[in-house]
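Researcher: Structure for this, please.
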Amino acid sequence: MNLFRSSIGRKILMAVTGVLLIAWVVGHLVGNLQVFSGPDKLNGYAHFLHSLGPILWIERLVLLALVVIHIWAATVLTLENHAARDVPYSVKHTIRATLASRTMRWTGYVVLAFILYHLAHFTVGWVQTGTYKGNLPEYTLTSEYHVAGFPVVAAGTTVADVHSMVILGFQNVLVSLFYLLAVGLLSVHLLHGADSMFQTLGWRNGRWSGVLRKVCILFAIVYFLGNAAIPGAVLLGKLQPLHPRAEAHAVTAVHR
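Model: Predicted structure, token format:
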């Protein structure tokens, strides 16, 4: 309970939950990039996730708990910092704090709004635009889908066409632009978060802090480009849905 009661404990909670959330967003990106490998890959991936049933819901609940703890710890630490100084600075002059660190709180709020929208868009299907009327159309896999070399979805399995759902969703320019903005802010958030995480956990020292900073910057850039590639390819016409655009309507989605 000291982790929740002390400021140091809350910083450790932020760092540990940050590590787990970073690992998850990277895995999520790797899964989503299968859209470039054709409908068999992404549709097989979505069907495999959906077939996990209770395990998938346990994962979602764990992720929700991590997000709640991360946001709670950040909010309490921010309030404590403000309360520690009754009189604000007459002049604020930042010497070493980076833009990423100074905007950490605000990028976090935007990222939270993006997560909620992303769930409503691709998981629940409340805000789908330009997609299918009713449920997703079916797609029959022409090849097995493998995870770590093991076949988990057999060829010939009829699954929902999540591949087309994703592409049609990003054909809306406003949706794609908002996605790019949010992912950009998330990348900035990850940049400072990853850097601070090593500091909090004691994995950073003066000998290699400069190299670590460059690695964090490279990670944030690669993460942003990986996410931006999907809506970018859709808007450029490089990715096309298998099924024609239908009347805009909410859908029942099975995407992660």
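Researcher: Any notable elements?
Model: The chain has one domain: 2-235. Residues 54-83 form the longest helix (30 residues).
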